[in-house]
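To whoever is on call:

I kicked off a structure prediction for a single chain this morning and the downstream step that reads the tokens threw a length-mismatch warning. I double-checked the sequence; it's 276 residues and nothing unusual in it as far as I can see. Pasting both halves so you can look.
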Amino acid sequence: MSSYDPGQDGAKMSFAQDMSYIDYLGLDPILGAQSPRSDAHDEMLFIIQHQTSELWMRLALHELSSARTALTGGEFRQAFKMLTRVARIFDQLNGAWDVLRTMTPSEYTKFRTELGASSGFQSHQYRLIEYILGNRNRSMMKVHEHRPELYQMLEQELRTPSLYHAALHALEAELGVTFDPDIYRMDEPHKTSEAVTDAWIKVYQSPDEYWTLYELAEKLVDLEDYFRRWRFNHVTTVERIIGFKRGTGGTSGVQYLRRMLEVELFPELWTLRGAL
């Protein structure tokens, strides 16, 4: 049997003058961006897992920013599609921990010193995701001062209403209520408001009447659900690999990550469940 020639079926086989798959995706710099600093076999896994996570976070930021714009403009259906996609992005990020957990403590020890003081704690994209979702802590910006362009990016986000702010404005407009301006703090984490909880309860008590807001709330809960799972899997992965050692970036490691598990992005949407 002769070997199959896809060119005979019309597939383009020569790309000397045309854009190829590698060209379109810019694969040369991407695939050349892995530079292990040791001979340890598992350092490549560690690098690629974090690089691919940063790529997924870049997409999450693209979708979250667009979803916020859509919500602000009253384009709810478009926003719902984007929020659904972000939840699935975090599902993909969860899967990355499963791969990293195949690395044992002994294997990580072989190259951990090569990381120096670098740490995922320093990810500006993760910080931007937190900021756009409403978990805004200005003190976290100091770690980015050495990169003025990144610091400015974070500063700009702190001057922009969060995704949850956009949702709360929609809630006000539909229910004809007005929340205390303090709820819309720009550079502090969102804090639970009884007035906001009551407004969301009204939506959940009459979902047919307020279906758009009802669906918006569930999209936000779904997103935070996947985000929490990602954080939880991060904690268990770190504990499995380094135990309770301090993180390379100087944090308390597992203890710090466990504190982050207590953070609620959209607290009223969780509080209301016990009130229904």
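Update from on-call: the warning came from a stale cache, not from the record. Cleared it. Sanity check on the structure: The domain at 38-274 is CATH 1.20.58.480 (Methane Monooxygenase Hydroxylase; Chain G, domain 1).
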